[in-house]
Design a protein that fits this description.
Layout: H1 17-25, E1 42-47, H2 51-60, E2 69-74, H3 82-90, E3 95-101, H4 114-132, E4 139-144, H5 149-166
Helix pairs in contact: 1-3, 2-5
């Protein structure tokens, strides 16, 4: 519910909309002022229950993710507020991906329907992105199980390649 609460009253003492928003806003986005050709910056909002441990296990097995990616852990994809995604893109990040638990017949979400809720929000983000003049491919959601460490880096790096083909965010540098 936290990600959809319009009044921002649902939260936890150590985890709320403002704290995650501050983490996202603190990520440095390279611009034309810093580089002749600035590198891309991609945000990953990653569920701390299955997806983050899968990334950790991938790292232990020496599977790397692209250095353009910055990870912000979230309690659950259901807690992701679309304002965070909009703010990230508005500040010039080139893409945002959400990495969460699998849903379907073998549902693995620790908060029951978090990944499903984010699935609906991601689908609805398309109109918002178009109104900003951005491609809807700049935002994507992936599902992983805790033991998908061998696949998770390929998912993330594949998303980076897709963003590279789209080019930089037109808001970069503003």
């Amino acid at each position: 519910c936290m990600g959809a609460c319009p009044e921002r009253i649902i939260g936890f003492a150590d985890y709320n909309i403002d704290s995650i928003g501050s983490m996202i806003k603190s990520i440095w986005v390279p611009s034309d002022f810093d580089y002749d050709v600035p590198p891309l910056r991609i945000l990953g909002l990653v569920c701390e229950n299955d997806a983050l441990p899968a990334l950790d296990m991938a790292a232990l097995h020496r599977k790397s993710i692209h250095p353009y990616v910055r990870i912000v852990p979230v309690r659950c994809l259901g807690s992701v507020n679309v304002i965070w995604i909009k703010d990230a893109l508005s500040q010039g990040m080139d893409g945002v991906f959400m990495l969460g638990c699998k849903h379907g017949d073998d549902y693995q979400c620790h908060f029951v329907k978090g990944s499903e809720l984010m699935d609906v929000r991601t689908y609805k983000m398309g109109e918002t992105l178009m109104s900003l003049g951005l491609e809807e491919e700049r935002v994507e959601q992936f599902e992983v199980a805790i033991d998908d460490y061998d696949k998770v880096s390929d998912m993330v790096n594949g998303f980076v390649e897709k963003i590279e083909s789209l080019g930089p965010n037109p808001f970069k540098g503003f």
